[in-house]
Amino acid sequence: MSEPALVELRNVCKRYPGVVALDDVTLTLRAGTVTALAGENGAGKSTLIKVLSGAVRADSGEVRVAGTPLPSNPGDVIRAGVSTIYQELTDVPEMSVLDNVLLARHERRLGFLRGKDNRRLAAAALARVGLQGFDLRRPLSSLSPAQRQLLEIARCLARDARVLIFDEPTSSLPEADVEALMGIIRQLRGEGLAILYVSHHLEELFAIADDIVVMRDGAVVAARPAREWTHPDLVRAMLAKDLKNAYPWADRPEGPILLEVRNLVAPGVRSTSFAARSGEIVGLVGLDGAGRTELLKAIAGATHPSSGSILVEGEPVRLGSIVNARRLGIVYAPEDRKAEGLILDASIRDNVVLGLYSLITRAGLVLSGKLAALAKAAVQEYGVKAESIRQTVGTLSGGNQQKVILARAARGGSRVIMLDDPTRGVDVGAKFSIYEQVLQLALRGAAVLLTSSDTDEVLAMSDRVYVLRAGRIVSEVVRAQFNRERILTAASLG
Amino acid sequence: MRTATKLKDAELANIDRQGGSAAREERLTLGALVGRLFSNTTSAITVVLFLICVVLSQLSPGFLTSRNVYAVLAQSAVVGVAAVGGTFVIITGGIDLSVGAAIGFSAMLGALSVQHGYGAMSGIFLTLLIGMGVGAINGLSVAALRLTPFIVTLATMGMAQGLTLQAAAGQSVYNLPPALTIFGGGRIFGGLPISVIVTVIVFVLGEILLKRTAFGKSVYAVGGNREASRLAGIDVNRVTFLVYLLAGLCAGIAAILTVGRVGAATPTGGAGVELRVIAAIVIGGTSLFGGKGSLWGTLVGVLLIGVINNGLTLLNVDPFLVQFMQSALIFIAVLFDALNTRRIAGRRLNPGRTAS
After folding, report:
1. What is the pTM of this model?
2. Which of A120, A143, A171, A357 is surrounded by the fewest CB atoms within 10 Å?
3. Between B217, B224, B352, which is nearest A21 by CB?
């Protein structure tokens, strides 16, 4: 506690109509310290970040940066040394690396850019995050997502950030790059920066944090040094209730083979063959870019395979036709909910029945009673928390949005249900209910194909996993032989 | 308890969008009432239409006569029918600039065929077929060839105009049989234009198609999120093709009304209709971003444009100024749409409302 406090929040409150988003929050960020913030969706973490980044103003209370009040607009906050790295990249892919690092912070003299100073500044900032030895004039789009994430940090450093706020920085990073990011964060801590780290991945918090602060319902409910927390303690503090088991499990009888994929070649997929049985949950494990999503999309007909065959209960599926795949019971729930899974401006009702119009029409006409009944049943069965089925899907939390997608995927005669990272960005409580629904789908006889950015999750849920590398299956492991290290090694090396 | 209040809030945001159709726990001050009406383009524009009618009836004694009302409706029929198809197109996120030219082209070929001795029935049939042909070309280009709707329909617009002038050598075709012109020029029940009845029928059928069929649901879905719709198993290309085909069919029907109204097929018939169609649709609250809109809004938009034109004429306003006011109305409608969209997006990002 000897380190100087860089950011101090005292009794900060923020209300939205009907919601107390921040309830008397007091929090200190110290130099050379990583403070982790944990909490369910809606606990107030996002609002806290918005207050700290100057995007919204607190209703009451005090926020000080190095003793002076926090400025009231985002630009001044950054100039005051507080920078935020958001979940989604905020760079400009068409511009060069140099311009991206210096976005809105070019050295100028008499209004003209000073090339040499700018290059030196950018190179120094990039070196601090371990990005060295490449041409600064390269287009940003030539960098990997992980490198771009690091570049975002470099941009903050180029603006003389003393306080860094990370908002779910690993949600789109493959596991190997997470470790690299952790290394950079540790190094920045060593340089004396104050860091606030927000993530759903609790193991990351334990790996990186000096202090862990838990928020619930807008209030800070616990703040302790990381070594004094245990995993169950932390979950309990976040939920204020015990989750008996992190993952549900039920033995299922071995059913007949439902899905057969033979020598499938498709964009991002090299000759792949495998099968899945009725009642089985089959996990697909692989690094980012190993071809998990590509394989699922090819089976769903969303991309055009160049050769191979797909059979559902022995019946061949027309390759490259989503409509035909859907008719034969293949359904794909995409990993990018907002871009590919939902119509955000439409109601829960219209999202649940998306593509299921044959269930709600007779002689071509929509039966509104049937439509409402179907949507209501789905909302109830999947525990979507909403006031009515007319509520706009975009106003729901990530977990509830995912439940809407699951409810849709389960209907319309689905037999092969492919869930691409269904718990991405979803809070702990909602995760559990999603796991239960996945299990239910398998118990009802579907073949479930599951991927996740969290390998532990796939291993806990699956009867069997296929390990993918560079677009093909490199090994098959049954549940009795699950071994996290070996599977991850197979995914990265072979 | 807390969750419940939060959800109520989210629901309120939603109710706002739907134009305050559901009850709100808010004191009904005049300001709140006005705010609620104007939170939705369709209801706002309906109020505006009503107010303009009241003002015009005071300013001009000729406004509220049955003769003038019928005239306004008849003048609005061509735009109204074309706007039904256009609404479908715009809800999918597309646009059809070729509708005016398609009207002129199909009217001209239909009239020429009649002039060359084919019957009125085959003339009508040919007119509809040509309209659908233009729509099919638009639809195939956008759906199968993945071309940009704006450019494709701009091109087909020019092509259709050129062919119209070429086919008739720049001349109008007169002396058409009553069986062809009755739909656009005939009246029944003591003065009610038949074109108005045709328009009403097209609107009713369009409304059923849009709101009560799987196709209509798909139209909204494709406009709301094309990729999500595709992955959910909707045949997105088919839906896209069909909305342009429908727009072409509506252009064909509008062509028959045009021929009847003028009593001839003119080489510039239908020119400029596309702008009035798009204006009416946008004024009626259908979003150019796709996914949102209604035929009711379009109907009100069509009437608003008709009434304003009529009123300005009755008040002897300079016709050049009429064009200015019409365009200013489009500007305001688009601005309104963009502001509303931004407001909703802002609410969606609001953390307090996304809580579970």
Report:
1. 0.73
2. A120
3. B352
